[in-house]
UniProtKB/TrEMBL annotation:
It comes from Cervus elaphus hippelaphus. One of its GO terms (cellular component) is cytosol. It is found in: Cytoplasm, Cytosol; Nucleus. Belongs to the pseudouridine synthase TruB family. This is Pseudouridylate synthase TRUB1. Transmembrane segments: none annotated. GO terms for molecular function: RNA binding; tRNA pseudouridine(55) synthase activity.
């Protein structure tokens, strides 16, 4: 449920590919190779149409093109699904468009589709979700530590157990004497390099289990200690009591829910997040780069990968992340087959 939790899930179909012998090179090199493969697949489709055999070869050609895609792009996550659920939905749409798996592909045991996201967004939140496909999944680590921008609407006078509007109200305090000047006057305390206590309802783990899962189960959970985080900019956009709107740009591992809660406490009241939108992650913006669901097609993603390749720094290396690394700040790699399902709170469970 964390708004800016740095977590990533990498999904793999049951079709496992012969990994192309690509050296751990810069992201631009990977993007160039991916573009060449995608163009070859597109040419195969065009040739099939000219010969009148499109009906029999279009699906294999689409599958070839899909498996050749490699790089990083962005999708628009709506309110409702978790980031992992959205990723599963994206993967299923792409596999269905390519006709995978099918009898002609099941013989090719080493064909695989690898796809993942670089930074969890709350189920109640909407906005930019950065996605890596193919070798682009190795780029996601940099997305987790990069800057993110949010528009958050907070509600004064109410505290909840989840620190947002989806939780149970745990406290109510007056707010009628709080002014716009009062809020603006304390924002500097939450700007720069600060210490922040993460929410109890989060993807952070204790003994291998997410704190949110333990909380839902009714277990006693101690708050994680405060940790250093960075807020690059913080401003009040609107104040219409009890609601206030913040524009926040922050680094990795930062929780907007904790920020809003802490602001409420600093004002001698309490507060929770009513609405949250991630407008930017790294170089990807909601308005310019995030693909809506009706554009989750192989061709649209191929075009987006080509456009987005210019946004990434040339020195960005494609390095594999370590599965044992914490999902608080770095990419967590989990590979699941089509026979596996997602459990509560983005936990992948194998049947």
């Amino acid at each position: 449920m964390a708004a800016a939790e740095a977590a990533a899930v990498v999904l793999s179909s049951s079709l496992k590919p012969d990994p192309a012998p690509v050296p751990e090179s810069a992201g631009t090199a990977a993007a160039t190779a991916a573009t060449s493969s995608a163009m070859a697949a597109a040419a195969a489709l065009a040739a099939a149409a000219r010969t009148g055999s499109e009906a029999t070869v279009s699906k294999p050609a689409l599958a070839t093109k899909l498996l050749s895609l490699s790089g990083v792009f962005a999708v628009h996550k709506p309110k409702g699904p978790t980031s992992a659920e959205l990723l599963n939905r994206l993967k299923e749409k792409l596999l269905a468009e390519a006709g995978m798996p099918s009898p002609e592909w099941t013989k090719r045991k080493k064909q695989t589709l690898k796809i993942g996201h670089g930074g969890t967004l709350d189920s109640a939140a909407r906005g930019v979700l950065v996605v890596g496909i193919g070798r682009g999944t190795k780029m996601l680590t940099s997305m987790l530590s990069g800057s993110k921008r949010y528009i958050a609407i907070g509600e004064l006078g109410k505290a909840t157990d989840t620190l947002d509007s989806t939780g149970k109200v745990t406290e109510e305090k007056p707010y009628d004497k709080i002014t716009q000047e009062d809020i603006e006057g304390i924002l500097q305390k939450f700007t720069g390099n600060i210490m922040q206590v993460p929410p109890l309802y989060s993807a952070l783990k204790k003994d291998g289990q997410r704190l949110s899962t333990l909380m839902k189960r009714g277990d006693v959970v101690e708050a994680k200690p405060a940790r250093p985080v960075t807020v690059y900019s913080l401003s009040l956009q609107k104040f219409q009591p009890p609601f206030f709107t913040l524009d926040v740009e922050c680094g990795g591992g930062f929780y907007i829910r904790s920020l809003v809660s802490d602001i409420g406490k600093e004002l001698s009241s309490c507060a929770n997040v009513l609405e949250l939108t991630r407008t930017k992650q790294g170089p990807f913006t909601l308005e310019e780069h995030a693909l809506p669901e009706d554009r989750w097609t192989i061709d649209d993603i191929a075009q987006s990968l080509e456009q987005c390749s210019s946004l990434l720094p040339a020195e960005l290396a494609l390095k594999k992340s370590k599965p044992e690394e914490s999902n608080e700040q770095v990419l967590s790699c989990e590979y699941i087959t089509l026979n596996e399902t997602k459990g509560e709170d983005d936990v992948i469970k194998t049947l």
